């Protein structure tokens, strides 16, 4: 397996394509099976010309890609650049021996009812679950029932990794740019299923750090948390947490805020989120164990809080803060955790990054932050992708649509050990 990536910032579409194709083909030197193309919305008016131009210049079995307001790719060997709000084209070519590829395009009206049997989803996708596929997904937020799609794919392909993002841009009134083989689509979702001799791992950094302690929800309605109880850490980590007093979540939040320093207390005024623990049986919580959701409202009369997802009694939650420092710490902790789990030499061939529009230079006050931090831990691997309106990736074995997240898909051949 071999991946190569190239990036061009030339303002002419033809020149940019010639640039990235020339760089990528020179580095790959063998026939590519898959091309991944991410193109700046600066070229929106030229999207209809893109695939014909690409096919004139490039011989490849399958192409998928999309437009984005920021583009990620290899500016030179070993150097990944995140180009925001400027013309840019990123092309990745992958040679995937022993890998079966199947591209697809889905419209919202084609999706089965959420209560449908898995067979309905398999009939739609035309991908055999026994092939143990993984999926790269690109979608238009306005015309795709993304949560229904992810729920259905998890139902039909429970062991599959799904990674991807939603198209972005300053003006998508004319529709998205979604590129699949020889077709341009303005709505729906596209992607590719990969099965066979391939391994896909993920790092989904949600950009938050926990504050205070976990609480168990004792009363909730839909997305509103009404009552919680403290989860007191036991002296012996092999024991279950003890429960403390029951209270409203607003009372719990106030007690947490009272323990913060002045800087974090100010941050809590505008950057507060709620982490929902995904594994109800895990006691020692680590980065990646929480699904981060926005805190979208409070009711001071009854002390309730509303979050951006359904919640039920019995689930554990913990308040989180989001800022540049917390985001960096979260990604760094996940990278360290990822490397600890690797056996032998790291053999990844290529990486896709689906980064939130809310990250980047405006968030960190410096360019290329997420990719530079990634390469500090995982070197000499091509990284490409784009800045998204929503990021797709798994937390605790379930696939979610995220915000403010950096979702990395790491592709390699399975170990022969």
TrEMBL record:
Gene Ontology, cellular component aspect: plasma membrane
Compartment(s) of residence: Cell membrane
Signal peptide residues on this chain, from the entry's feature table: none
Highest taxon above the source species: Bacteria
Membrane-topology descriptor: Multi-pass membrane protein
Keywords: Cell membrane, Membrane, Transmembrane, Transmembrane helix
Pfam families: FIST, FIST_C
Domain FIST: 31-232
Identification of the protein by name: FIST C-domain domain-containing protein
Organism the protein comes from: Acaryochloris thomasi RCC1774
Classification of source organism: Bacteria, Bacillati, Cyanobacteriota, Cyanophyceae, Acaryochloridales
